[in-house]
């Protein structure tokens, strides 16, 4: 696939589109390691890569470095995350222009998290408050130059009053021009299926793409799941708590993610987005031998 493929088109046709999410490494050595892992991940035929950035936009420049390097190394489309945190509308437009120059094809449009120690998001003067406003900005100022993905929450966003309100907010983002919804990580597929059905009933008819993060270290998984209020099933928690060896925890967690993937494929998801934490070993073991990719 070439960089000209529209984001919505990635999820049309037979088969399951997969994509991988990266984050900007802090060191040159980390960047080199990430690039090697990207090379290994391409064996699974991803449609594109995405790259996030740190809290408050702290790694925006490095994010674009990753976008450019991955784009050059793979010739695959690459998406940059973009949040409303700490940026005026003019600064957001500046970032989008540079992202386009550096090779970004898609944008993952997010509101962003409140600052550490705060429970409430505060927009800067001249900035945006909601992700749907960011989608509207991209569509109004850049027309169809970028494909746009937005976030969905199978277990409800932690700031939402209830699931219905959360879906209403999601529909605003889709109605503003989002091409696809990529979900927050989850560990019980039933949570995703309920969410997908609810989206359909709410009139959200773009692809709903599940996001999967293999549990390779239980303490780390508990920390990450706690940040986004994702539930770790009792059976998985018990299995991982029963072993102390890191290698055994890795095997249990990766097998759980593999079974999640197989079940999602059987339930005909349009795509799966993998949070790989810049590593390829878990993904290689998880995806080995599975029939993935579009035909």
TrEMBL record:
Does the entry feature the keyword Oxidoreductase, yes or no? yes
Q: What class of enzyme is it?
A: oxidoreductase
Per UniProt, the keywords (alphabetical) are: Amino-acid biosynthesis, FAD, Flavoprotein, Methionine biosynthesis, NAD, Oxidoreductase
Record-level Gene Ontology MF annotations? methylenetetrahydrofolate reductase [NAD(P)H] activity
Pathway-wise, it operates in:
One-carbon metabolism; tetrahydrofolate interconversion; Amino-acid biosynthesis; L-methionine biosynthesis via de novo pathway
Cofactor(s) listed in the protein's UniProt record = FAD
Q: Which reaction does it catalyse?
A: (6S)-5-methyl-5,6,7,8-tetrahydrofolate + NAD(+) = (6R)-5,10-methylene-5,6,7,8-tetrahydrofolate + NADH + H(+)
By its UniProt entry, which Gene3D superfamilies does this protein fall under?
A: 3.20.20.220
Pfam family example for this protein?
MTHFR
Q: Does the keyword Zinc apply?
A: no
Q: What is its EC number?
A: 1.5.1.54
Q: Please report which protein family the annotation says this sequence is part of.
A: Belongs to the methylenetetrahydrofolate reductase family.
Protein name per the record:
Methylenetetrahydrofolate reductase
Organism of provenance:
Roseiconus lacunae
